[in-house]
């Protein structure tokens, strides 16, 4: 069977002012990564692990460091991918410094590919600044030949070994507490990690740390089918105290042994899923399990609007825009994958936002020329709106805050040319779509500057340029260009 990754997306069109919880995007400037043991560290096949780095801005300088190999520095343009070989694979050691540190002068996205002898897992890496200090540990799934029969676990037989937690520290000394039958405190040096067996008798339910850490959960070689085993790992997401609704894609529930691993207020529960289950409410994080796949579910309260589609070069890629999960098949049909990198949670008709537009009603009421200077002094522009889509978007955003705006009329960045009487935008855009109110504009004697009425249709009219009014100041967004 040909390798074929499939990326799931779930998009929304919410504005920032809405009550929907805005998802945190996956980009950042500093990352810490480790490659878990795959099958067995002594396996004769060589690992083909990689870090896939995507730059979002031009002239992005990326530095990759570890404790063995020389520092690697790359300069990338926006939309450019770079693959870094990840040859440092963990063993069974309790403590290790086999970590990769990635830093950049601009935001980047990273996902890791763990690949050895048809045992493949991918993981979206969270930047250090967005890691958490508290994690709920999901229950261990029931896997015949690995976790079942109970009592036959052995640290000497890879596929029969316990599940593991890998706790990776960032750039400061840290103290980690592992909650279970007995509380365990572990000090960690900068860029050091610890591996912890997740055994039934220990009843591990949570990880807390004084400073942010990354936490991975999984198994180096969990039994899949036909007496084969393969890597099964996922980075955990920080704990979520609220009850959230998780969307479950039907295609992933086709396997009869698909379950949701829920950590609800320190209570661990394995929840069965049927093909008819499209959603589930969980008071905490939720991880979907099926043979070969551990997948962090994304609550609908954190859906976004722009994602980067990443595919492995050696496979045939497909995209299904349903929910924001990535899925692939290995040669034996096993599913693996990770969530798609979120770049922006805010919808915009122009594309994928790296930084949102700035829209501000000026505090000072003045003439049109003075209002132009007012916006310029704030490093903004008196707004120009040559496109109908932009006019609509600005009207919707202003309508959400009308009650807090004392003004009823505002200056916009349009006026007549003194010699010809033609209207023009101050940013030199062509005058295409307009939104003149009925019987507007009038003659030059009635006014040479454009004013917008707040409310209803947000219509425009010509007005005396010396009339006092508040300006609409604006800065366009920065877009991710491919």
Structural description of this entry:
- By secondary structure, the protein is mostly beta strands.
- The protein folds into two domains: 6-344, no CATH class; 354-479, Roll (Mannose-Binding Protein A, Chain A), CATH 3.10.100.10.
- Helix content is 5%, strand content 40%.
- It has helices spanning 368-377, 388-399, and strands spanning 6-8, 28-33, 50-55, 60-65, 72-76, 81-85, 95-96, 100-116, 119-124, 132-136, 163-169, 174-179, 184-188, 193-198, 206-223, 229-235, 243-247, 259-264, 267-272, 279-283, 286-290, 293-296, 306-307, 318-320, 326-329, 335-336, 342-344, 353-355, 358-361, 381-382, 409-416, 423-425, 449-453, 460-463, 470-475, 478-479.
- The strands form eight sheets. Strands 7, 10, 11, 12, 13, 14, 15 and 16 form an eight-stranded antiparallel β-sheet that branches. Strands 2, 3, 4, 5, 6, 8 and 9 form a seven-stranded antiparallel β-sheet that branches.
